[in-house]
Each structure stands twice: as C-alpha cells, then as structure tokens.
Design brief:
Structural class: mainly alpha
Low-confidence stretches: 3-7
Order of helices and strands: HHHH
Shape: elongated
Helix content: 55-70%
C-alpha cells in the first residue's frame, strides 16, 4: 500500500470530546451573554435578576466541558496523534475560566 493512501484514524472518543467541547463552550458563551450583555448595554446592575437561573443552567455545560477534558485525556492515552492535546488544553482553560467569567464577567467601576 502506498504511504499516502494510509489515513490517520480519528477515534470516536476524540470526536465526541470535540463535539462536547464545542456545544458546551457555545452554551456557556450564550449564558454569559444572557447575564452580562444587558449590564454592558444599560450600564447598571439592575438587570442581574437572572443570575441565579444562569448560574444553575451553567452547571450542565460546565460538566460537558469536564467530560470533554476526560475524553480528550482518554484519546491522548490511546495514542491519538492529532487533536487530543488541543482538546485537553482548551477544556482545561474553559473549565477554569467559565465559572469565573460567569460570576465576575461584567463591568466593574474603577476603584479610586
């Protein structure tokens, strides 16, 4: 068989990890915008009445990011060459920054 005819095989674990990461990241970005865009537009914190619902709703996408992190680690351990490092790194960053961004993501007055 010719060397160019051999294709690298992507494991289903990595495909699921990428899909989970994309869907969960999009959901977290949408939840962030639901919570903080009204504050940015109006300039007041009066629109933060949705924060308990948004924080509760963010648990499922955050768990999806953690699951993508675990699946990326499994794909990395199975010897997948392309992708698992990016999935693991991105999942780790999103899993740490998403709760911080949801909680502290809005504008702050200058301390002075």
């Amino acid at each position: 068989m010719h060397a160019l005819a051999v294709r690298s095989h992507t494991t289903p674990t990595l495909v699921v990890a990428v899909a989970l990461l994309c869907m969960s990241g999009t959901a977290l970005a949408l939840l962030w915008s639901v919570m903080w865009v009204p504050v940015l537009v109006t300039g007041t914190g009066a629109s933060l009445f949705l924060w308990p619902l948004v924080l509760a709703a963010s648990l499922l996408p955050w768990c999806g990011v953690v699951a993508a992190l675990v699946l990326g680690g499994v794909a990395l351990r199975h010897g997948e060459r392309r992708g698992p490092t990016a999935v693991v790194t991105t999942s780790a960053v999103v899993s740490v920054l998403a709760p911080i961004a949801l909680w502290f993501g809005g504008p702050f007055p200058a301390v002075g």
